Write a sequence for this structure.
RNA sequence: AGGGGUGUAGCGCAGUCCGGUUAGCGCACUUGGUUUGGGACCAAGGGGUCGUAGGUUCGAAUCCUAUCACCCCUACCA
């Protein structure tokens, strides 16, 4: 059949591309770097979004929507910020097309040039802080805790589905606070929310930490990150949370009066995760047979396949089982497509990452059992129809836990402590993975290591970043014990 | 952005070097039949401006030029 997936061992990039296409997650669009997210891919995003949105609301945030187009002048208000994004902004210069006077098709109407050019948002800090200036007058207006779900555009040279696309979907939280302490607490709180989401819902273990100066968000004072290990040993930054200090308050003149009628600049945070998480999900759990989706993010948790062709008896039992599963809050589909044989359906549901498959045939029903197959281990078990919902409920939890444990074991296996640079280089040339080593805290050392090995400081871990000796590279006194890796 | 590769039916490809009837094959699709416990089989069908735009030629999928897209490897970025 034409549905084969390139094995990871053979070509990891090709494997990834095969998964996103053959599991029906995306299609390429006519525009470079943009992707059409198909229903099966978008369903994963919807579940990510639903859960995160709930967690944001639980932590006191509300949603709003700010416009796609931003006046060009806004981008230049915060120096570091503009430096970070200027290179990859799409610019709207005209507002009208016209029929081509010299032939077929349409051309840009040269008389429709905009007075001020508009930027398609690469992120929304500027438009949001321009707005916040009017919303914040008093300490009573603080904290302001707003999130938005949106698309953004960054004109990337090299794109890959989900991991790096020109347009992507994300959420961006933007908050304003009266004090530095509060703002730092907010940034750290959302950092925790991201980590909890990654581990509990995506079943993806992450290392929490802070970014070094060079890896920090343009315009931030501190950037917190969650870093996950992919199956090729490379690190993927899965979510960032920034303490922005007063940089945007200064740039956009956002001040409030305190209880003593004294004026102060506000303190800010921003934090975001994107459709990149879907890429992370794929590269954390999937295998050579296709996609693997953790049960908590699977839009369809169970697929029921009748064997052989559906008949009255099978239909009846299926309806009963589906009713019980749905009552237990489990999402289930019945694949009674008469044109496909069971074997084909098995392979297809595996390709698409459905966590559990139930096969129902006459041979099973004679014994009042069904065949339950789990996607993560491919294990098949005969299970009594009686109590099936409870069994599947437990199984889904077990799969969720197993995926997390497997990913964590993989990460531990590919994580190393390292004290000399020679050892460091040898590790990178070999299996790669995460390497913990001492760092003198200078950007020079960081840059030199990056240029010589390709590995970067992924983060200064929140836990246990006390140095255990001198800097691996310079031999000088180390400031931190940091996580090095090659990264996406 | 540098190097390499590929664009021919929805998908995977042959044909291109050496120009020559109506451009093929496998899968998928449609119809009918037989099947059905891990990607079924038989038969009959439908589907193509050969990536796009120019050029050379009596004649172009094939030669030339330009351009676009995608993939791989480096470098850069979430």
């Amino acid at each position: 059949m034409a549905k084969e997936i390139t094995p990871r061992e053979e070509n990891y990039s090709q494997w990834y591309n095969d998964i996103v296409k053959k599991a029906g997650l995306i299609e390429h669009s006519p525009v470079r770097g943009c992707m059409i997210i198909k229903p099966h891919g978008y369903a994963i995003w919807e579940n990510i979004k639903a859960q995160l949105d709930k967690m944001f609301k639980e932590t006191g945030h509300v949603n709003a929507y700010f416009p796609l187009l931003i006046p060009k002048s806004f981008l230049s208000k915060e120096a570091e910020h503009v430096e970070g994004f200027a290179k990859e902004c799409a610019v709207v210069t005209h507002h009208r097309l016209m029929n081509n006077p010299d032939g077929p098709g349409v051309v840009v109407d040269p008389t429709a040039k905009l007075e001020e050019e508009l930027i398609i948002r690469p992120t929304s800090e500027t438009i949001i802080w321009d707005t916040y200036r009017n919303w914040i007058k008093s300490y009573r207006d603080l904290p302001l805790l707003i999130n938005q779900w949106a698309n953004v555009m960054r004109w990337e040279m090299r794109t890959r589905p989900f991991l790096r696309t020109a347009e992507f979907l994300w959420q961006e939280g933007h908050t304003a606070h009266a004090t530095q302490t509060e703002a730092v607490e907010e940034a750290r709180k959302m950092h925790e929310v991201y980590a909890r989401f990654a581990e509990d819902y995506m079943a993806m273990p992450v290392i929490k930490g802070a970014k070094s100066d060079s890896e920090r968000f343009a315009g931030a004072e501190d950037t917190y990150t969650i870093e996950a290990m992919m199956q090729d040993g490379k690190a993927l930054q899965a979510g960032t949370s920034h303490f922005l200090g007063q940089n945007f308050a200064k740039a956009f003149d956002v001040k409030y009066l305190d209880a003593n009628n004294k004026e102060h600049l506000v303190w800010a945070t921003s934090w975001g995760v994107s459709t990149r998480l879907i890429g992370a999900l794929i590269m954390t759990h999937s295998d050579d047979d296709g996609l693997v989706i953790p049960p908590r993010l699977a839009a369809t948790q169970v697929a029921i396949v009748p064997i052989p062709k559906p008949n009255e008896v099978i239909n009846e039992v299926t309806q009963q089982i589906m009713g019980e599963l749905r009552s237990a809050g489990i999402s289930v589909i019945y694949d009674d497509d008469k044109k496909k044989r069971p074997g084909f359906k098995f392979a297809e549901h595996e390709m698409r990452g459905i966590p559990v498959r139930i096969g129902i045939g006459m041979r099973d029903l004679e014994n009042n059992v069904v065949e339950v197959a789990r996607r993560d281990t491919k294990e098949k078990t005969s299970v009594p129809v009686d109590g099936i919902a409870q069994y599947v409920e437990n199984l889904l939890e077990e799969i969720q836990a197993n995926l997390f444990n497997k990913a964590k074991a993989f990460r531990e296996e590919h994580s190393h402590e390292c004290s000399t640079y020679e050892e460091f280089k040898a590790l990178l040339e070999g299996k790669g993975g995460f390497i913990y080593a001492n760092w003198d805290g200078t950007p020079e050392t960081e840059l030199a290591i990056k240029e010589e090995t390709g590995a970067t400081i992924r983060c200064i871990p929140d836990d246990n970043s006390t140095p255990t000796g001198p800097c691996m590279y310079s031999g000088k006194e180390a400031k931190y014990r940091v996580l090095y890796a090659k990264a996406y």
Observations:
- The longest strand of chain A covers residues 167-177.
